[in-house]
Every structure is written in structure tokens, then in C-alpha cells.
User: What shape does this take?
Amino acid sequence: MLYRCFMSTSRAREFAKKQREEIDKSSNAEEIQKAIDGLIQGLGISEEEYWTDYVVEGYMKQNTISKLRSEVLEGIEDQTKRNEAWEEFVKTLTKTYSIDLKSIE
Assistant: This one.
């Protein structure tokens, strides 16, 4: 089950490349670029590091958590039960494996 939740670095890099291209084509590209530049400055990294490291790692984390969440909650329809099941799963990971999903969500 869990092995299906992880994304390859090459796939995440392709996603980042497409996002960068889409931003360049966007009608408000200048506004978006200003926001990205502010984030880059705040992070203290170069634009290239932003696109090749920060965006790639962030997408991999979010995609993995999203897939994991879907796997864990599959078949649970009630929203309250979904929330409870996810919280229990996160507690188990934190306690058993010292993995804190809340810190990376």
C-alpha cells in the first residue's frame, strides 16, 4: 500500500518544469513572479534552487501525503470518521516511527 504513495524525483522535477512554463505563459506572470521573488528572497535561495529543490521537494511531500491520506481513508464516507481515522494514523506514525506528518503538511 505505502509504496504507491511515493513520487519519484524525476516526476516532481517534470511537474516543477511545467509549472514554471505555465507561469511564464500566464496573463498575470509579472504579478506571480513578484510573489515568487519575495518567497525566494525570504528563503535566502536562488531562483534556480527554488525551482530545482524547493518546489520539487514541496511537491513530493504534498503529493505523498495526499496519496497516503487517500489510501488510509479509502472507503470511509463519514467526514467525522475520516478525520478520526487520519488523526489516529498520524498519532501511530508519530509514536511508532517518530514521523510527524503535521510538521510537513
The radius of gyration is 17 Å. The chain is about 75% helix and 0% strand. The mean pLDDT is 88. The first helix runs from residue 9 to 25.
